[in-house]
Structures
1.
Amino acid sequence: MLQINDIVTTYGAIEALRGVTLEANDGEITCLLGPNGAGKTTLMMTIAGVLHPREGSIRFNDESITNSSSSDIVKKGIALVPENRLVFPEMNVRDNLIAGAYSRLSKDKAVVHEDIDALYHRFPRLKEREKQLAGTLSGGEQQMLAVARALMSKPSLLLMDEPSLGLAPLVVEEVFQIIRELHQDGTSILLVEQNAHMALQVANRFCLLDQGQVTFSGKPGQLAENELIQRAYLGGKQAS
């Protein structure tokens, strides 16, 4: 579904990604683990077309998207739920959802509003706060809105960057239940997550990213969880 080959992404002279290669398969949750500064968010922004790589290639459904614009990538079926939620704070909940469907609003306006109603069924709290400014929602509600807004583009691959960051434990459980339900409904997910224990409960595959490079990839269970956490976050010995 998604093939990333030898991607190098830079900020000026600094290489944030240094030859990243990985795959995310159709119908799976692929989890990307690693310490702060490893390049995880840079990779998500590169896939989404917000950043463009200096070297390497990205293919989605056997089509190159390496230098595509972010709007074209959304149209091809990839949507990003960014780190720190990043809702439009001065817009109400419904207008945030409409903004998520900008790529198809001119052709499918009636269907867009039907899709909003369907998302209100999935996220009833958003319905309750339909006219409320997004910036006044709780952190958990903003995360729900960010996910729902991304779903409005009808993605086949959802990029989720730290969806549980800064949320209370009960809300984290709720967020991961949403991830499970989206997966059960057929959405493929590439997940960046600091909460490795929760991420490994939902992941089909995982990759470790450190200093801009993939140091290990496999399926949950291929490494003991304690060893995996050590490698991902505590500077343990790297895979050869």
2.
Amino acid sequence: MFIGKKKPSQLANIVLALAVLSGISVIIMVMGASMGLWEPIQGFMYSRMYSNNIGYAVTAISVICLIYLFIKKHLMGKKKALISLIIGLAILSPSIYSMIGPKISYPGIHDITTDTVNPPLFITLTDDREGARNTLVYGGPEIAVQQIEAFPDIKPIMSGLSPDDAYAKALAVGEAMGWEIIGADPAVRRFEGTARTPYFKFVDDTVVVVSEAASGSRIDVRSVSRIGRGDIGVNALRVREFISLFNQ
């Protein structure tokens, strides 16, 4: 049993400082595109290459520090080491979730539409849009089959609203979702837009077309990534969110 006044542990101070700096560096990697430091793809690659290694390093030195402090009973700093450990585990949390969470497999596609037979066409936005590496030309039956298999719930919105009212509501939904609206044309009931993903701020392009239907109106939505072969379900999530908000 140790009797006497405990001394602060310099090791615990150093480990906590490293953990905090590591946490800040990971946040910057994720949020760097929002800060204008680099393009979204660069931040994504930095995160993919370094975040896990940083998280493992912080976790390891925090555990070592805790063990050391339990052995050296005359030293204070267990709380700091524990905070450092929590930071390390927080950095690793996406990786941990991917290992213990539900396994979800996404097809290698980046173009999602409610109409895979006659997908809404882009008119205002073109293939020379800034930073684009993907075409806006639909990939055809091969892409359609993969989408239907992975996201069978994504279908046109059938509404009892008149086409004009449905267009107004669809436009309001797009704006509520934070899209930058481009080429809105009430005469033909269509608009295009650009959307950004959270954190890394990848730019995706959207188009919404409203047409007449026997019961009122039909609304079709399409969302396409500017870069990347696959989108890990981001465009499907966006289309689903649009459908859900419209149907509220």
3.
Amino acid sequence: MAFPDGYSTDPGFDPAEDYIGPFYYQHKPDHRTYAFVAEDRHCNVVNLVHGGVLMTFADFSLCMEATDHYRSEDCVSVSFSCEFVSSARVGDLIECRTSLTRKTRSLAFVTGEIFVGDEAVMTFSSVVKRLNREQ
């Protein structure tokens, strides 16, 4: 499957995400979308995309949202909760939409949904610690 136009990736930023991904992003004026295409290496023993891969992709997406694409700060996850509501398979374009609920001086609260087409695969919420790059 060819990757849809308009998506970008930034290899070399996070070694773990590079190893598991690549993960992509698309910025539009009113929202951001994150995506990857499932491959055999992303699957578990029953040939479905592994939950750990989906959780890593969610973490990538929520951190991009919380930091405005790491423009001025970094972050680390403090808490993460998810619900698997369906499954994804090899060849699926897996997308994520996130919502920044609130930012305080030290934390950001983010929710999101991972989906294939119109079907939800996973929902999640997270709290991340905002890190000033000057520390």
4.
Amino acid sequence: MRSVWLGLGALAAAVCGGTASAQVRTIDPNQAIDGDLSAQAYQAPSRPQATTQPSRPAPDPTYPETPPQDVPPPPPAQTTTAPTPETRAEATMQAADTYQRDDLLAAGEGVFGKGAAGLGGILENILKDQGQPNAYIAGREASGAFILGVRYGSGIMSHKVEGQQPVYWTGPSVGFDIGGDANKVFVLVYNLYDTEELYKRFPAVEGRLYLVGGFAATYLRRGNVVLIPIRLGVGWRAGVNVGYMNITHKSRWLPF
């Protein structure tokens, strides 16, 4: 009996010792941790790359799609240049923008009186030489002189395009007469494109003098604008006394 128990004890000891020796192994803690992490590392699932394209509506079968049209380039910018003085002067010579002989004769008779002898003749001479004006001034003036003289005048200017407006003028003179007079004056105006060009000094031009009956006319010019004042009863003084004619918007006492 004792031998049986000893045999069983030896058998149990052998079994336990073999199991213990089989379970004992050496483990590196760093490798064990890295192994666990690498085994548990997350890997994103691979997805096919999607290409996005703008959505385009389906064509309407009722209205067929038209091909794109070529857009024409914008027209080149146009630059406007100011008209030259010669062009401005020519623009005032159109028949619709000038006064005819009958209109001027009627206006002149309104200044000097109806049927004034010699008015039609001097107008004929001026229109023949200078053409038809596009403005005129109907007014009166007073002058006085003792070797040196002055003129003061006022009137209404009629422009074929811009209508009527009042004007005033003064002018120093040098001559050979003594005394004073009051006269009516009718001024033909040529090449007046803008009425503001009238309000300047117009010097007399030598060698231009019209004398018919009791009427006398002088010739004044500044640039392309020409003034021809027609006066009644001033005789020779109209040719030698007028130095210049200074036209202003308002009346003034200084003649210069």
